[in-house]
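User: Please run a holo structure prediction.
Assistant: Happy to. Please share the sequence and the ligand.
User: Here you go; the ligand is coenzyme A.
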Amino acid sequence: MKKVGIVGLGEYLPEKILTNADLEKIVDTSDEWITTRTGIKERHLVQEGQATSDLAFLAAQKALKNANLKPEDLDLILVATITPDMPFPAVAAIIQDKLGAKHAAAFDISAACAGFVYGISVAEKFIASSVYKNALVIGAETLSSVTDWQDRNTCVLFGDGAGAVVLSEVKKGGIISTYLGCDGSKVGILNLPAGGSRNPATTETVRNRQHYLKMQGNELFKIAVNTMTEAAQTVLKQAGMTFSDVDLIIPHQANERIIMAVAKKLGIPKERVYLNIERCGNMSSASTVTALCEAVEEGKVKKGDIILLDAFGAGLVWGACVIEW
Ligand code: COA
């Protein structure tokens, strides 16, 4: 099997910013509540008319440029998203066309906040087994389009954005271990009830606000802490490593308190945890990948470093990955 690594990265965050002070004018909340309960200060939101593929495309272009590859070099495009432009076709198909990646197969992955980790795990297998040479994996979301702006329990949490990576064969380092999991018995605690084949859109589903995401935050909190801890332990064990080998953990950014509780359980000091939640909120599949992009951009990831991606989301699903940079 070939060694596979990340050879290019890029992110795109929409220009518009919604601060906690802005939210105070929309729902009964306060900057103090949002900051202390979640760690979020502001989030990026799309402009009217901007969709997930628009964000994904801009991130993809940057990642390709960073990898020094042309669209024609791509064999595979995966887009992790739960907010596609439309139920079908896939956002990946739209990106394939926009980029002009005429040799690439393309499909979407629906694994919510763990979608990017699922994506790189799938793409890695194609390259490791010599089926494909170059894959583009994108995490992109327009969560503002499924957020109920009347529900203070959820609307303060989410943001829009996209990140992309190019995976190719590497001589040294690269992805050492990946671990994916799912517990579908808990579909009910985080979902978007209507608009699919179970509850197609009707005037009633619209009136009942069923086209917005619903979440039992309190219950999720505890499960997220335990599951992310276990996923990190499992993937490191698979890699034959311990937490002292990890230079930087880049977790899914759902809540700073969740992240810090996981880090504490794992015995990883704060300085070795990367956060962008304060500026971006929870961007589901785009969170882990944009955090990775920013950590690299800021020089927090150096050649030879061991990084740990750790994500958890609706499904419930989870995924973790150990990479030697
Ligand atoms: N502003 C002010 N008060 C708010 C509020 C807001 N935006 N949202 C909720 N509250 C209130 C609640 O109504 C509740 O009031 P009550 O005690 O009078 O009923 C109180 O704050 C506490 O609510 P609770 O849900 O217990 O807060 P919490 O500490 O659990 O924090 C979350 C809520 C959502 C931030 C937290 O549970 C969380 O992050 N959960 C996990 C989310 C997650 O992981 N989601 C995605 C998975 S990827």
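Residues 217-239 form the longest helix (23 residues).
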